[in-house]
Design a protein that fits this description.
homodimer, alpha/beta, DNA-binding
Chain lengths: 336, 336
DNA sequence: ATAAGGAATCGAACCGTTTCGATTCCGAAT
DNA sequence: ATTCGGAATCGAAACGGTTCGATTCCTTAT
């Protein structure tokens, strides 16, 4: 692999001239410029990015850290990020959950191989992020709440209005006439599902139904977990007429259990959260709360861009959800 | 951000000693070792990866280049890659399709920021890859055929047996009694779909049915494309009893059109290819040919690992598909 | 007491760029 | 003829680590 030195020698100019040809061609006379460019072509010289990074102290690269790479859920998010990143001349590189402490996302952060990061993987704690973040390595965190005074001047939060989404869900249930719902929430450490549940309760509270009367059971955000939770609920033999699941995946499990017991959504309605693409396809199609992932990607990347330009203490953004009504929540026939 | 120099000064040792503490602790006496480690901790020193990369001429990083980040299809592949990569102490970073020539995957390749690559994005041509590949930057390409003599000593191919999969599909149709199939294939430039179609034809040929009697129509691998293709087929008003789609996505579109026209799979059976997770969920559940993506990831990463150890001209690998029979291909009732 | 050998530590070169300040060169202005 | 100014080019110092060979310092054998 030829270096800039080889090119310089071959073209009979100094190293700095070659560099100039590469970065600020207008500063070099036409004669030498074309000569150098020819040598570059014939030697197939490509400047070493690592060396450049070291010298200019940045990489033109940002990290996107996901929990796992699955689902069109993320692909939309990344689509949004990429759209903005391209216009900022930045290359996003994405990493899945880092199992190994020494590899993956944490390594990129620790070793400063990136100029910024967008973090969704909730396996990376806020205190870790606070430690890694710096003026030249700002971080945007998705879907988390920061302890009240911004932990670090270089961390920005973009979140979905989970509480509002939960409220929309509750409101919709009430509108359809479901007054005896049960809730399948996520793991306790998942802030998002807490908020969803809170909003859901609020809607019912406004309608005069106290949360104390609503059964809550914890799931683990997986399909199987949702199924188990639903089975547990059925065993209790309560008079419920609807189930709100804190994410779509679990709602899928709920639908399966219901189908197995020959219970129709007219008897027990089901609602999810997220609007994963599967939601549209299952039978009956799942009513759910849509998360604006593409918009989240765009917003996150824009804010990261600003932070990379030096802006500090960027205030958090909250994006609104929207209701997607499908067939799993049919209006309840008049009689209660 | 402190550098190794700061640590050295603070700890009263030379730079080389600090480096030694970091990389080969056993070579440093216990006393200085703990002292240096303490300074590292208090200064919160983290070695700069870029500087290290430059010196040792590698990054411990490999690129995974996808066409788009969507779909659990890829998440399995990446799962396989990550599993092996971790054991090799390598960090995989994934990039979507690079729109901009100056950004994304191409930049990582060109600027040698990675030590190896696994390429699925068929937007990157083989000749490009041949140009980028080198002893210290081997590449594994998925699902492509190389022009006969290996184009480069540092490119390895891992592919799915598309032809075999197509054959399995054809065989299954025949077994179920469908003797008048139509085929919805992919874009002409997609080698894979050609091979699938070829295998499919072979099965029928063995059963005495010539490919000349089988209608073929081109789709674009999307759901809408599949729907359009199916609509076209229906308009022709032919006496077909089954449709083989070169991928699941298009098959989904086919199912929708069929449903809209109130045609049941008992009249026109449908089969896809890929086994995306949706296939299990649609109504009726889609019979399809499963691609071993996880295994593909594992294989690709293993071979890349070998190539990175210096092995050259690694022969291509082909992985077998398997049939997943669901409800979209019910056995045809005796009468033809 | 001295030589030999091993452990601990160090100095300096090096990786491949960018960039700042200096130098050369040339034509125009005085 | 001399000075001046700008354009073109260059030399050398970074950037922040790793690593090789040299040096220092002990301990042990002679």
């Amino acid at each position: 692999m030829p270096t800039i030195r080889d090119v310089a020698r071959e073209a009979g100019v100094s190293i700095s001239t070659v560099s100039l040809v590469l970065r600020q061609p207008h500063r070099v006379s036409e004669g030498t410029r074309v000569r150098v460019q020819e040598v570059i072509k014939t030697l197939n010289f490509r400047p070493n990015g690592t060396a450049r990074d070291l010298r200019v102290r940045k990489s033109g690269t940002i990290g996107v850290f996901l929990r796992n790479l699955s689902g069109p859920y993320y692909s939309e998010l990344i689509g949004g990020i990429e759209q903005v990143a391209t216009s900022l001349r930045l290359t996003p590189i994405v990493c899945g959950r880092s199992v190994d402490e020494e590899q993956g996302s944490r390594r990129l952060l620790r070793e400063r191989r990136i100029d910024g990061a967008i973090v969704l993987d909730f396996g990376i704690t806020l205190s870790e992020l606070a430690e890694y973040s710096a003026p030249d390595l700002p971080i945007v965190v998705l879907n988390r709440t920061l302890p009240c005074p911004l932990a670090s001047a270089h961390i920005t939060v973009v979140k979905i209005d989970d509480d509002g989404g939960g409220y929309q869900a509750g409101k919709h249930f009430i509108d359809q006439g479901f007054l005896h719902p049960a809730v399948i929430t996520g793991p306790v450490e998942a802030e998002a599902s807490q908020a969803r549940q809170r909003g859901f309760f609020r809607a019912y509270a406004e309608h005069g139904i106290a949360s104390t009367g609503i059964l809550v059971i914890h799931g683990d955000f997986t399909e199987e977990g949702g199924a188990e939770a639903m089975a547990t609920i059925l065993n209790l033999n309560l008079a419920i007429d609807a189930v709100f699941s804190a994410n779509d995946q679990m709602a899928l499990g709920v639908l399966q259990v219901l189908a197995k017991h020959n219970i129709r959504v007219e008897q027990i309605a089901v609602m999810g959260f997220d609007d994963i693409s599967l939601a549209r396809y299952v039978q009956p199609a799942l009513t759910t709360v849509h998360q604006p992932m593409f918009e989240a990607g765009v917003t996150a990347m824009k804010l990261l861009g600003q932070a990379m330009m030096g802006e500090e203490r960027i205030p958090p953004r909250t994006l609104s959800t929207s209701l997607v009504i499908r067939s799993s929540t049919p209006k309840k026939s008049s009689s209660e």
